[in-house]
Automatic annotation (TrEMBL):
Protein name according to UniProt: Helix-turn-helix domain-containing protein
Pfam families with a match to the protein in the record: HTH_10, HVO_2928_N
UniProt lineage: Archaea, Methanobacteriati, Methanobacteriota, Stenosarchaea group, Halobacteria
Residue intervals of the HVO-2928 N-terminal domain: 3-170
Annotated source species: Halolamina litorea
Ranges where the HTH bat-type domain occurs: 183-231
Length: 254
């Protein structure tokens, strides 16, 4: 298996969807599922940010006048089906289906051509960047994909390519408590069960220490170690503001 990343950067004013992310750099979009074949494409995108920006995103995203995927200058003649499947004051989740590939120049369409069957991808939008990370079988042509994007790219967009040495952290983009040492996992699960993380708290650290029959200082250490790892993992899953892609959590606490 081989891993690489492609990042498209947008100037302000060239894409109405990315303009919202540029205006609100605190916004973040993650594609939770993306599937593409020679005939069609379907995906689920989750976008988080301030409510006023999400309302603007919704108007652009669901519009039939704009292709959210096109990176080329040619007009896309294919039909898109968009559906809002979750609406919350801090996030929106969209389902997209494209029944035909047609002449639309998009990264998933070109990936289907150059990477062949079997590739998977992780996709994010933040600020002025649209970032794709690919895991592909041997035999695909990532250089061909990059060159095809370069050839089709419209004015105001630029593309960069990053070759990644070893495939990393594709099993689960989330944080699993099962990965914690057993004593730390038990401390976190007990704290949650007893309401330690509620506001206001239903239990004190002393209550949890008594429940687990361990000293207060031992519980405090286990929770601090576990919380540090959980938060570190959560933050490291996102693309940083300068475009660097963090692929792994820090080493598990001992």
């Amino acid at each position: 298996m081989r891993e690489f990343a492609i990042t498209i950067e947008y100037e302000e004013g060239v894409d109405p969807l990315m303009d919202v992310f540029i205006d609100h750099p605190e916004m973040h979009s993650r594609t939770t599922n993306c599937h593409v074949s020679g005939d069609s494409m379907w995906r689920v995108d989750r976008i988080a940010g301030p409510e006023t920006a999400l309302e603007r995103i919704e108007d652009v995203y669901l519009s039939t006048q704009h292709c959210n995927e096109c990176v080329g200058s040619r007009h896309c003649h294919t039909d898109w089906e968009h559906e809002l499947i979750e609406s919350h004051h801090s996030r929106r989740t969209f389902y997209t289906y494209r029944p035909t590939i047609g002449d639309c120049c998009s990264i998933p369409q070109l990936a289907c051509i150059f990477l062949r069957e079997g590739f998977v991808c992780a996709v994010e939008r933040r600020s002025n960047q649209y970032h794709w990370r690919f895991l592909m079988r041997e035999g695909g042509d990532p250089s061909g994909l990059y060159e095809a994007i370069q050839d089709e790219l419209r004015d105001g967009l630029s593309v960069s390519f990053q070759q990644i040495q070893q495939p990393t952290h594709w099993a689960d983009e989330g944080v699993s408590l099962a990965e914690l040492p057993n004593e730390q996992r038990e401390a976190v699960e007990t704290a949650v069960r007893m309401g330690y993380y509620k506001t206001p708290r239903d239990a004190s650290m002393a209550d949890i220490a008594d429940e687990l029959s361990i000293p207060h200082s031992t519980l405090q250490y286990r929770l601090q170690e576990a919380e540090s790892w959980i938060i570190g993992c959560f933050v490291s899953k996102s693309m940083s503001a300068d475009g660097n892609w963090s692929l792994q959590c820090d080493k598990l606490p001992s």
